[in-house]
Amino acid sequence: MEALADADALQSLSGHRHQSQWQIMALEQPKPLLQDEQHQDGRYFDDEVQLPQPQVAEEVLSDYRATGLTLRAHPMSLLRDRYPFNRCKRHTDLPALGNKRFVRIAGLVTCRQRPGSASGVLFLTLEDETGNSNVVVWKRTQQQFRQALMSGQLLLIKGVVEQKDGVIHVIAGAMYDYTHELDTLQVSSRDFH
């Protein structure tokens, strides 16, 4: 029951994640010592507590924590108005840039692959709120930015757009790990008195 509430699978029954979690925590057998404090139907007096609905950022983080994905807002849409992400182009902006143009993009790393036939070239897929961008990382760039490349979940890439036959790639020149920015989506605690 707790796992279902954490994944917000009980929304249709209780309204939202916090309310589900509250109601599940309240499910316990009546204690003989407190029998006089119960309603006739077996519920405690404070059983009708209504908690405020979580904010979008809190819902997104809880979804990722519980299930590894979300059907709500994309994390990049929540970060887009912050520096340095406000200087980055979105996936849908790339076709309008043209070939051989400098670009900054940012997104969640969804795929890293180094095919044997690619002579050591690494391919990244970055996901933002509008789609998936293909990034080509040459060997020298891999060596220079190894830490960010191997461990980053949220990367900012500076590179050059390459368009050919309707296929768009970004050739990475530099990459920076901004995974810590995902933690800033945490909302401040709600203290109930």
User: Any low-confidence stretches, pLDDT <50, length ≥5?
Assistant: 187-193
Structural domain count: 2
Order of helices and strands: HHHHHHEEEHHEEH
Radius of gyration from CA coordinates: 23 Å
Structural class by sheet pairing and helices: alpha+beta
Classified in CATH, the superfamily of the largest domain is Nucleic acid-binding proteins
CATH topology of the largest domain, which one? OB fold (Dihydrolipoamide Acetyltransferase, E2P)
Task: State the total count of DSSP E strands.
Answer: 5
The number of helical segments is: 9
What's the CATH architecture of the largest domain?
A: Beta Barrel
Strand order of the largest sheet: 1-2-3-5-4
CATH class term of the largest domain: Mainly Beta
Helix content: 25-40%
Description:
It is a single chain. This protein has helices spanning 2-6, 11-14, 17-25, 56-67, 75-79, 94-97, 139-144, 146-151, 180-183; strands at residues 102-113, 122-128, 131-137, 154-164, 167-177. The two termini are 27 Å apart. The protein folds into two domains: 2-53, no CATH class; 83-182, Nucleic acid-binding proteins (OB fold (Dihydrolipoamide Acetyltransferase, E2P)), CATH 2.40.50. With 193 residues, it is of the alpha+beta class. It is built from nine helices and five strands. Strands 1-2-3-5-4 form a five-stranded mixed β-barrel. Mean pLDDT is 80; it is low at 187-193. The protein is elongated, with a radius of gyration of 23 Å. The longest helix is centred in the N-terminal third of the chain and has 12 residues, at 56-67.
